[in-house]
């Protein structure tokens, strides 16, 4: 069988590339090992985690904040874990079903098989699904490599116990353990830790670095760290290493080595969320000219071209940041490049969002990056305590800040912490991409009373004219 374009991997990078290549009039086939399209994002990442985080937020609002606001329900909320899981699964089913239809409508063929390269223009297809063509091979003019990433599980944590989970295991929500250790204070650990803590588990978070969300600006992390500490009843261990895990009956014994904690403690479940690794092993890349760097990522240029003229790479397998929206944009570029257009991935600002409560979002230059680069920037901060909407919502610990070039007054970066930060950051992404100056933001009329006004107000701080109109 031959297909002009073959996309290996049906995640948000792969299906976007496939659909857009089909829209360009190309003949396209997706090779995906799993029964459904959607990849990590839909099946065991962005979407299921956000469905569960929404439940966690509702519990927080009705159970804890409600009391402050004069709305009290009797007793603790009763969690029906089967219903919580079923709702999350229904969201996944709806979206993956939609993808199947979108593929059909575009006449994109989907082969359910594990693919590996025989050479630069042929994939071997392994599996027993009826969609696999006779001969078990497909040839192509171009292949888009979109095999994504999987959770990193170093041998020291990989003890063969189902009490030790990665993010996929945590999203399965088998039970609500009484005690749970989250190893890694990055965004996935904090999102999943928040869900379990809000559902009733006693969660401990351990992080090797001195702060949660290492790499993010400290002022953004501060309100979240406070909330996580409260949610975990002070069990946040920083600067602390986990030395070993050992199954012990119904528990996992964990040894800690660090100022946060020394010695051993037992947990009902352990979530290992210390990062993800790109999927390049077992793909037969040695049979092609594709190059892989020392971190395991496929090397490609701004047009997503690899060293092999027949193969492009996109998404998590093609490098940081490992985010769905970056994968999708790279998928678009790959499709257009294959169609002969002069496209390139040239984003100035790829937003990052941590969907905890409060949310954290940033785009463009961060204060940490500016400091490291020795770049002088004006940092204009607007605290949400001065926002009428934030006061009404009871979320006054948020802040919005712009990083501004002191000479050109252009906005270079934006950081937000607070409810809905992930939605608010989109305005900043547009402003940074368009090379806006601060006055472009302050001169744009923002609706009142909204949290979006804080973007305008933070801009006004630059001119010393912030108006606090409650
Ligand atoms: P993937 O989505 O990983 O898809 C790769 C596909 O390739 C898979 O379906 C896999 O089965 C298939 N495949 C691999 N090898 C083969 C082979 N040999 N043959 C056939 N098929 C193969 N990102 C965000 O932007 N926002 C979020 O809120 C967010 N939350 C997340 C939460 C969690 C818990 C996790 C784990 C991830 C989250 N991510 C989030 C990251 C996001 O899921 C990834 O960045 C995104 O899915 C990457 O897309 P991709 O297309 O590159 O790869």
Automatic annotation (TrEMBL):
<dbReference type="Pfam" id="PF02852">
    <property type="entry name" value="Pyr_redox_dim"/>
</dbReference>
<protein>
    <recommendedName>
        <fullName>Dihydrolipoyl dehydrogenase</fullName>
        <ecNumber>1.8.1.4</ecNumber>
    </recommendedName>
</protein>
<feature type="binding site">
    <location>
        <position position="207"/>
    </location>
    <ligand>
        <name>NAD(+)</name>
    </ligand>
</feature>
<dbReference type="GO" id="GO:0050660">
    <property type="term" value="F:flavin adenine dinucleotide binding"/>
</dbReference>
<dbReference type="InterPro" id="IPR036188">
    <property type="entry name" value="FAD/NAD-bd_sf"/>
</dbReference>
<feature type="binding site">
    <location>
        <position position="115"/>
    </location>
    <ligand>
        <name>FAD</name>
    </ligand>
</feature>
<dbReference type="InterPro" id="IPR006258">
    <property type="entry name" value="Lipoamide_DH"/>
</dbReference>
<feature type="binding site">
    <location>
        <begin position="322"/>
        <end position="325"/>
    </location>
    <ligand>
        <name>FAD</name>
    </ligand>
</feature>
<keyword id="KW-0676">Redox-active center</keyword>
<dbReference type="InterPro" id="IPR004099">
    <property type="entry name" value="Pyr_nucl-diS_OxRdtase_dimer"/>
</dbReference>
<dbReference type="InterPro" id="IPR001100">
    <property type="entry name" value="Pyr_nuc-diS_OxRdtase"/>
</dbReference>
<feature type="binding site">
    <location>
        <begin position="184"/>
        <end position="191"/>
    </location>
    <ligand>
        <name>NAD(+)</name>
    </ligand>
</feature>
<feature type="binding site">
    <location>
        <position position="316"/>
    </location>
    <ligand>
        <name>FAD</name>
    </ligand>
</feature>
<dbReference type="Pfam" id="PF07992">
    <property type="entry name" value="Pyr_redox_2"/>
</dbReference>
<feature type="binding site">
    <location>
        <begin position="147"/>
        <end position="149"/>
    </location>
    <ligand>
        <name>FAD</name>
    </ligand>
</feature>
<keyword id="KW-0520">NAD</keyword>
<dbReference type="InterPro" id="IPR016156">
    <property type="entry name" value="FAD/NAD-linked_Rdtase_dimer_sf"/>
</dbReference>
<feature type="disulfide bond" description="Redox-active">
    <location>
        <begin position="41"/>
        <end position="46"/>
    </location>
</feature>
<keyword id="KW-0285">Flavoprotein</keyword>
<comment type="similarity">
    <text>Belongs to the class-I pyridine nucleotide-disulfide oxidoreductase family.</text>
</comment>
<dbReference type="InterPro" id="IPR023753">
    <property type="entry name" value="FAD/NAD-binding_dom"/>
</dbReference>
<feature type="binding site">
    <location>
        <position position="50"/>
    </location>
    <ligand>
        <name>FAD</name>
    </ligand>
</feature>
<feature type="binding site">
    <location>
        <position position="275"/>
    </location>
    <ligand>
        <name>NAD(+)</name>
    </ligand>
</feature>
<feature type="domain" description="Pyridine nucleotide-disulphide oxidoreductase dimerisation">
    <location>
        <begin position="350"/>
        <end position="457"/>
    </location>
</feature>
<keyword id="KW-1015">Disulfide bond</keyword>
<feature type="active site" description="Proton acceptor">
    <location>
        <position position="448"/>
    </location>
</feature>
<dbReference type="GO" id="GO:0004148">
    <property type="term" value="F:dihydrolipoyl dehydrogenase (NADH) activity"/>
</dbReference>
<keyword id="KW-0274">FAD</keyword>
<keyword id="KW-0560">Oxidoreductase</keyword>
<dbReference type="GO" id="GO:0006103">
    <property type="term" value="P:2-oxoglutarate metabolic process"/>
</dbReference>
<dbReference type="InterPro" id="IPR050151">
    <property type="entry name" value="Class-I_Pyr_Nuc-Dis_Oxidored"/>
</dbReference>
<dbReference type="InterPro" id="IPR012999">
    <property type="entry name" value="Pyr_OxRdtase_I_AS"/>
</dbReference>
<keyword id="KW-0547">Nucleotide-binding</keyword>
<feature type="domain" description="FAD/NAD(P)-binding">
    <location>
        <begin position="4"/>
        <end position="331"/>
    </location>
</feature>
């Amino acid at each position: 069988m031959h297909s002009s374009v073959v996309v290996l991997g049906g995640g948000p990078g792969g299906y976007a590339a496939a659909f857009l290549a089909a829209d360009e009039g190309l003949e396209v086939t997706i090779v995906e090992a799993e029964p459904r399209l959607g990849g990590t994002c839909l099946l065991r990442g962005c979407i299921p985690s956000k469905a569960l985080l929404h439940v966690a937020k509702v519990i927080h609002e009705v159970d804890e904040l409600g009391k402050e606001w004069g709305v009290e329900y009797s007793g603790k909320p009763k969690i029906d874990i089967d219903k919580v899981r079923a709702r999350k699964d229904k969201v996944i089913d709806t979206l993956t079903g939609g993808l199947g239809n979108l593929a059909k409508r575009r006449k994109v063929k989907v082969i359910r098989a594990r693919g590996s390269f025989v050479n630069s223009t042929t994939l071997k297809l392994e599996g027993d699904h009826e969609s696999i063509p006779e001969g078990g091979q497909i040839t192509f003019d171009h292949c888009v490599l979109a095999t994504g990433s999987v959770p990193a599980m170093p041998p020291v944590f990989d003890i063969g116990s189902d009490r030790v989970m990665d993010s996929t295991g945590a999203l399965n929500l088998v039970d609500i353990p009484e005690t749970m250790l989250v190893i890694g204070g990055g965004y996935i650990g904090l999102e999943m830790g928040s869900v379990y803590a809000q559902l009733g588990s006693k969660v401990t978070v351990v992080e090797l670095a001195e702060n949660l969300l290492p790499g993010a600006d400290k002022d953004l992390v501060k309100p979240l760290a406070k909330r996580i500490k409260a949610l975990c009843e002070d069990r946040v261990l920083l600067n602390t290493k986990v030395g070993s895990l050992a199954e012990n009956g119904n528990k996992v014994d964990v040894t800690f080595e660090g100022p946060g904690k020394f010695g051993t403690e037992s947990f009902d479940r352990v979530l290992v969320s210390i990062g993800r690794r790109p999927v390049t092993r077992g793909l037969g890349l040695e049979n092609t000219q594709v190059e892989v760097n020392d971190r395991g990522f496929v090397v490609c240029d701004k047009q997503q071209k690899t060293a092999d003229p027949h193969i492009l790479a996109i998404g998590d397998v093609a490098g940081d940041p490992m985010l769905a929206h970056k994968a999708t944009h790279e998928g678009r570029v790959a499709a257009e490049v294959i169609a002969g257009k002069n496209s390139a991935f040239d984003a100035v600002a790829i937003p990052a969002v941590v969907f905890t409560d409060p949310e954290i979002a940033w785009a463009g230059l961060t204060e940490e990056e500016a400091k490291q680069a020795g770049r002088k920037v004006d940092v204009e901060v607007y605290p949400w305590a001065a926002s009428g909407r934030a006061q009404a919502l009871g979320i006054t610990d948020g802040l919005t800040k712009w990083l501004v070039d002191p000479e050109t007054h252009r906005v270079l970066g934006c950081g937000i912490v607070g409810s809905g930060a992930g939605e608010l950051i989109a305005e900043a992404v547009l402003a940074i991409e368009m090379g806006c100056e601060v006055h472009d933001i302050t001169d744009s009329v923002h609706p009142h009373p909204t949290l979006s006004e804080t973007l305008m107000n933070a801009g006004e701080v630059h001119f010393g004219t912030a108006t606090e109109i409650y």
